[in-house]
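Researcher: Sequence of Phosphate-specific transport system accessory protein PhoU follows. Predict its structure.
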Amino acid sequence: MSPRVLFEQDLETLKNKVSEMGEHAEISYDRMLYGMRENKEDILKTLLDTDHKMVDMQRSIEAMCLSLLTRQQPVARDMRLVSAALKVVTDIERIGDHVADMVELYLRMGNMNSEGKQEKLLLKMMEEAKDMIHNSVEAFVEGDEANAQKVVEHDDVVDDLFNDMKKEMMQAIREQNLDADRVVDYLMMAKYLEKIGDHAVNIAQWAIFRMTGDMEGVKLY
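Model: Prediction complete. Tokens:
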């Protein structure tokens, strides 16, 4: 088998590893969303100890990328794929961290009324961020520039929901219909969701870079 064929197989393995890590983050996120919507603390508690697996997956992908860079010395599109994968796994790992952060917040504050006005807004924000995670990783693995661009544009939706959440919290403070601790916890959770959206945008931008060499309109490679 020629070195080029072997290298292409390694690149395919790399994409599969990134996809697997993204799926792991997405599954954890889905469980978090279900656990919070249905007040399932037993499910949420299982998500507190998933960080080790995520870090292991990240380290494995980073080691493979460094090996490919040193052994194969890729150029052009192959180089962009390997170098972008090094960046993407950091964002995926941070998404996993934020899932654990939100679970800890939820377990500390107790269950929430999923039919409440603020809670519905928070759950809506969770749904929008969920789609961004899935679409960004898929765009990177598949090399889908159009889908990646949609993720970047969709960030405005999550940002607008975050601003709406801040307004709702200010209104709750004025009307004194939420205690101060819950207001802070909800704002922190909304901030974590905004950060998750930002990480999804980063992944999407690296997907665009992988295909075009452009990063936010600047030609890098």
